[in-house]
């Protein structure tokens, strides 16, 4: 059973461009979470999704950030018009419907904005 | 809001026990976790404890929970160089989100 997959692992963007981060949860997992880790800090919750639904987006910045988890395919975290402050590691986690308290993390996408 | 505090650094000698501490403010959390992060990698779930437990042991790992003092600790017995990493304490918040501390960087030296 493959773990949580994220791609790309590294992403470089110039200011003003768009960044798209993808997350494929573990097989059988229908809950996806996105977290952001700034350098030398802990992870901060961004958004919690189930298939086709956003359950909690209390940690998402109000502008430029959006997330989706369609019926088919991976979850996508989209950052429009990136700024240098968006440079961070973005982690996705997934959990099964029967044990939502147990989250398994992917390897992360490291975004660098030039 | 919820707050999770950890000391930033811990240095131990190989073979000794390591104790990583965590304090928190939200007493309503039902699950408390320890994750390990190695350089450039994602987070590995080490263990978790339900809030109605005081202790959980899993091989070299022992978790102690003091609900009165809102204190969680992780003890690693016979610490090895491969245990060098950042250890994160986390609490389950509303809607299953995890609230993390800033992490404790464990350095194991010979």
Could you describe the 3D structure shown?
- The complex is a heterodimer of chains A (114) and B (110).
- Chain A is mainly β.
- In chain A, 0% of the residues lie in helices and 49% in strands.
- In chain A, the strands form two sheets. In chain A, strands 2, 4, 5, 6, 9, 10 and 11 form a seven-stranded mixed β-sheet that branches. In chain A, strands 1-3-8-7 form a four-stranded antiparallel β-sheet, with no helix packed on it.
- In chain B, a hairpin with a 4-residue loop joins strand 7 (61-66) and strand 8 (71-76).
- The mean pLDDT of chain B is 93.
- Chains A and B meet through strand 4, strand 5, strand 9 and strand 10 of A and strand 5 and strand 10 of B.
Q: How is this structure best summarized?
A:
The complex is a heterodimer of chains A (114) and B (110). With 114 residues, chain A is mostly beta strands. Chain A has strands at residues 5-7, 10-13, 19-24, 31-37, 43-50, 53-56, 65-68, 75-79, 88-95, 104-105, 109-113.
Our measurement of the CA-to-CA distance between the termini of chain A, rounded to an integer number of angstroms, reads 37 Å
Which overall shape of chain B is indicated by the principal axes computed on the Cα atoms? globular
**Uncertain regions of chain B: pLDDT < 50 for 5+ in a row?**
none
Count interface residues per chain for the largest interface: A-B, 27 and 23 residues
> How many individual helices of chain A?
0
In percent, how helical is the residue content of chain B? under 10%
Distance between the termini of chain B: 41 Å
- Total strands of chain B: the figure is 11
Q: Residue-averaged pLDDT of chain A, rounded?
A: 93
Count the beta strands of chain A.
11
Q: What class do helices, strands and sheet pairing of chain A give?
A: mainly beta
Structural class of chain B: mainly beta
Give the SSE string of chain B: EEEEEEEEEEE
Q: Strand percentage of chain B, roughly?
A: over 45%
Tell me the helix content of chain A.
under 10%
